[in-house]
Amino acid sequence: MNTQFKQIIQEQVRKELDACTIYAQLAYYAKSQGWDNLADFMGEHSTEELKHARKFAFLLGEHSIEAKVKNITTTWNLELTDYTSVVVAALDHEKYITGEINSIVKLTETFEVDETSTELLKYFVNEQKEEEWLFEELLRRIESSSEETVEAALSHDALEADYKNTL
Predict the structure, then answer these.
(1) pLDDT of residue 94
(2) CA-based Rg of the chain, rounded to a whole angstrom?
(3) Burial of 93 (0-12, 13-18, 19+ CB in 10 A)
(4) pLDDT level of residue 86 (50, 70, 90 thresholds)
(5) Three-state SS for 124?
(6) Residue 131's Cα: distance from chain center in Å?
(7) Residue 34: which region, alpha, beta or left (left: phi > 0; alpha: psi -120 to 50)?
(8) How far apart are CA 47 and CA 43, in angstroms?
(9) Which DSSP state fits 64?
(10) Which of 67, 88, 100 is nearest to 142 (CA)?
């Protein structure tokens, strides 16, 4: 594995773990406000981000490289004031991660990477499309009805099914 690519993947493991803590914080805030469904949704997303970190870490492991977990600090300033601000914070973070994944893909055009790495990056490009869609759809639903209506009907599985119907 190219040294530069190894470092980039190590950093992406950290970013995914950071995302895990951001979503956990969003879940905790939602729970404190009595938005149980949003709290569950963000909690599920926190778990999903942990799985993403594991995918990148295991990619390193497949190349006999140990993933190093260092300096997991949430640098995002989460100014949470209402239901919508939680969803906007999540969407902003997903857009940031999409940019990071796209940068990795672009960088890999400058050197050779193995098929496993290429397939994993393709997976994440598609995954980011879905994640951005989920939070954009949540915002659309809030704008077209109300936070209370969205909260009452919020389901991670239902939103993912709606996304799959758009494909």
Answers:
(1) 95
(2) 17
(3) buried
(4) very high
(5) helix
(6) 7
(7) left
(8) 6
(9) T
(10) 88
Q: What is the pLDDT of residues 6-52, one digit of tens each?
A: 999 999 999 999 999 999 999 999 999 999 999 999 999 999 999 99
Whole-model pTM: value is 0.87
CA gap 38, 74 in Å, rounded: 20
Q: Please say whether the beta carbons of 29 and 88 come within 8 A.
A: no
Q: Which two tokens stand for residue 160?
A: 């993912």
Q: Where are the alpha helices (DSSP H) in the chain?
A: 3-32, 36-62, 83-107, 115-144, 147-153, 156-166
- Other Cβ atoms less than 10 A from the Cβ of 135: the count is 21
* CATH number belonging to the domain at 3-67+76-166, selected among 3.40.50.300, 3.20.20.510, 3.40.50.720, 1.20.1260.10: 1.20.1260.10
